[in-house]
Amino acid sequence: MKKLFAEFFGTFWLVFGGCGSAVFAAGVPNIGIGLLGVALAFGLTVLTMAYAVGHISGGHFNPAVSFGLMVGGRFPAKDLIPYIIAQVLGATAAAGILYLILNGAGAFSREGVGAFATNFYDSPGYNNRSYSLMAAFLTEMTLTAFFLIVIMGATDKFANGKFAGIAIGLALTLIHLISIPITNTSVNPARSTSQALFVGGMALKQLWLFWVAPIAGSIIGGFIYRTLLQKQDNEG
């Protein structure tokens, strides 16, 4: 149960900090944190929780990461569903508190692309560009695959594990810098689900992609690291 609580609180912090920064602070006139600030916020949530509770649960905070680590031989299949449930519940609890805070100012809105930090595709978003379903799928799949490679490499027994949280947090920051203009960045089905549940409509209709693409990418990344990159004990 401690592992599940760690995943709940870790995913809660990721959504509250990452999506919260996007909802409250990104567009504040003159002092808003913008794209760079939101990207850093997501990275910092993972970095801080990796050191806070990563030693308890492994610090997944993301159903796609759990899938990828299972494929990579780092995580038992029997724990997959409980971890995913804890992650989705943690993300949804965070989204609920974000909703209450935002609604306290009468500012909650379901209108507009990316409302309440939801993910999207095939809709004019930032810079008035509309990325197709295929482009969004390829983005989410590719970035999640590399995220898994970074996670597995940074936490490998041959790596310096003391710096794993920093590498993983910075990788997530980079991922957001690349893909916020494309899909508002998911690479995390729990994060996408929590926001879509409150917005509904198109966000829920498009949610399937932000489960399928990240999980597909994580499986690819886990397989690549395990079969092509992972150093064996008998290797020099």
TrEMBL record:
GO MF annotation terms: water channel activity
Transmembrane parts of this sequence: 35-53, 80-102, 131-151, 163-182, 208-228
Keywords, sorted A to Z: Cell inner membrane, Cell membrane, Membrane, Repeat, Transmembrane, Transmembrane helix, Transport
InterPro entries: Aquaporin-like (IPR023271), Aquaporin_transptr (IPR034294), MIP (IPR000425), MIP_CS (IPR022357)
Membrane topology: Multi-pass membrane protein
Family: Belongs to the MIP/aquaporin (TC 1.A.8) family.
PANTHER family recorded: AQUAPORIN TRANSPORTER, MIP17260P
Protein name, per record: Aquaporin Z
Species, as recorded: Chitinophaga oryziterrae
Gene that encodes it: aqpZ
